[in-house]
Amino acid sequence: MTMRGFGRQAATAGWLFLVIAVAACSRHRLDEYDFMDHTVAVVTSAPASARLDTGPITVVRDNPLEMVLEAGGRVVREVEVRGTRARLDSASARVDVGERMSERSLERTARYLGARPVADRRDADYLLEVFVEWYGIEAKDWDAAAYLVMGAEVVLLDNRTGTEIWDEDVRAWEALTPRVYHGGVARDVVTASVLSTLSVEELEGVLERVADLASDHVTGRLRHALRDVRRR
């Protein structure tokens, strides 16, 4: 085979690969459905407990006295983290993240689709299923900003046939601030050390914000996907 022939085949193969890759990325069929005057429901499943990721609580010191003090401080911090985890578990038992997400997402989902919202999935022509993989708080360092985080897979189904119309992985994060839990901390950003002082009731407010954040990102992705289809 000549170099010219080889180059032509390589170019053709590359073009086919590009077409396949684009097709693989376009995993929705939103343009095939008319949602007007139909019904839609939202169902969300979420883990029972929130995740708390504080990262390693370690600091390297050169001075032996500082090392001893730091070791003692590290023990105190680890105890505080365990206490925060326990209170976060208690807050998780009081906040149904999945139910809150479903309630918040339903009205927006119906509005974006042009469908009528229904509470019972058995009455719905279309179903938005949200599978929350994880959610909670991430604070990688004791004095660094804490973030609300979540990861989920969302699927829009034809509820009569089970056909997947649209699906997407959703990841969201947002800096945790005092206004989220109505705390009295005079700071713009909450750190892991401040997080350890929050009560169960304040952590409930944090989890409610995580649910709202997740819901807004899920419905926002659907809105953008629909907007792209309707612009064509």
Question: Your description of this structure?
Answer:
The chain is an alpha/beta fold and 232 residues long. It has a single domain, classed as 3-Layer(aba) Sandwich (Rossmann fold), CATH 3.40.50. The chain has six helices and six strands. Strands 1, 2, 3, 4, 5 and 6 form a six-stranded mixed β-sheet that branches. A hairpin with an 8-residue loop joins strand 4 and strand 5 (147-158). It is elongated, with a radius of gyration of 24 Å.
List keywords for this structure.
alpha/beta; Rossmann fold; 6-stranded mixed β-sheet; elongated
Largest sheet: 6 strands, mixed
Mean pLDDT: 79
| Helical percentage | 40-55%
User: Which H/E pattern describes the elements?
Assistant: HEEHHEEEEHHH
- CATH-defined architecture: 3-Layer(aba) Sandwich
Helical/strand content category: alpha/beta
- Quaternary arrangement of the chains shown? single chain
Radius of gyration: 24 Å
CATH top-level class: Alpha Beta
Distance between the termini: 43 Å
CATH topology: Rossmann fold
What general form does the structure show? elongated
The number of helical runs is: 6
Q: State the domain count.
A: 1
Per DSSP E runs of 2 or more residues, the count of β-strands stands at 6
| Low-confidence region ranges | 1-26, 57-75, 182-186
Quote the beta fraction.
15-25%
